[in-house]
Amino acid sequence: MGEGPVEITPEVTADLLSQSLALRQELRDLYRLLPETRCRRRSLCCSLLPEMTLCEALTAVGQLAAMAPVVRMEVTIGFIRYFLMNSVELSSCPFLHGKDCRIYEERFFGCRAYGLWSRARYESEAARSRQAKEVSRRQWEQLRVPLSRQVVEFHLPYCTHVEVMGGVEVNDGLILEARDRLEALSRRLGFWHEVFRANYFADLSFLLASSAFGLHQAVASKFYLVRDLVKTGGRGRLARLMEEAPDVCAGLL
Ligand code: SF4
Questions:
Q1: Among 21, 27, 186, CA closest to 106
Q2: Which residues line ligand 1 (CB under 6 A)?
């Protein structure tokens, strides 16, 4: 496979999609461990793309592949832009369309669990995520690219607006059990499950940007783009990359 981090190429993604049909069906069953919910402010929690397992990422890629070409390209470009820019600007999950989710029935575990955790558990998860962002901010600083604290320190507030349907009791134990089972399910994808977690930081936007430009080029483009933006405000590189972005999910099904 050559030097450098192992890459989930579009060919690998296509193979994983065809291998994971049964797993993706099991994923839908596991999602049902969490109760149906209703909320009053449906889109604020979509200000960030949640972390996910590889099995969930493949489900989303399958959804993308099945979209009409114009919509698929719009969403794909949204993901690539999200990856390139999320260190310097706050932008919503690329599946958000107005106040609706384009993949609501297949949305990720992170979306389903938000608003169900206890406040204490939610705050401890948020603290872990803040620590990871702080590590990333320091790495950028070492590269002489200071990031805005407003972006780095942004986190979703604890949500009290989710209503559980059908009077079902939810507690952290139930959510954690569902999360563990989701993780175990995705681990059945073997080696690639860990590659997605370790090399792509469980980030679908990274996977799609890497599919479009190659992993090394996606990371290098992000660095130069963020550096240009922070130092000069220049956005020319972003416009060129958006024009060059291929329809990476076309023909994957
Ligand atoms: S997948 Fe849907 S519900 Fe989840 S963050 Fe994105 S837009 Fe929101």
A1: 27
A2: 46, 50, 93, 95-96, 101, 103, 107-108, 111
Q: CB neighbours (10 Å) of residue 120?
A: 10
Question: Which of 155, 129, 175 lies closest to 37 in space, CA to CA?
Answer: 175
Of the CA atoms within 13 Å of residue 213, those in its CB half-sphere come to 24
Structure tokens at 109: 């575990």
Nearest CA to ligand 1 atom 5: 46
Nearest to 87 by CA among 36, 51, 137, 121: 137
Pocket test for ligand 1, best of 96, 97, 159 (most atoms within 8 A of CB): 96
- Given a cut of 70, is residue 72 above it in pLDDT? yes
pLDDT in tens, 122-172: 999 889 888 888 899 999 999 999 998 888 888 888 988 888 988 788 999
Which single residue is written with the structure tokens 């390139």?
84
* 192 token code pair: 């690639």
CB distance 13 to 61 below 8 Å: yes
Cα(101) to ligand 1 centroid in Å equals 5
State the Cα–Cα distance between residues 113 and 133, nearest whole angstrom: 21
Prediction pTM value = 0.94
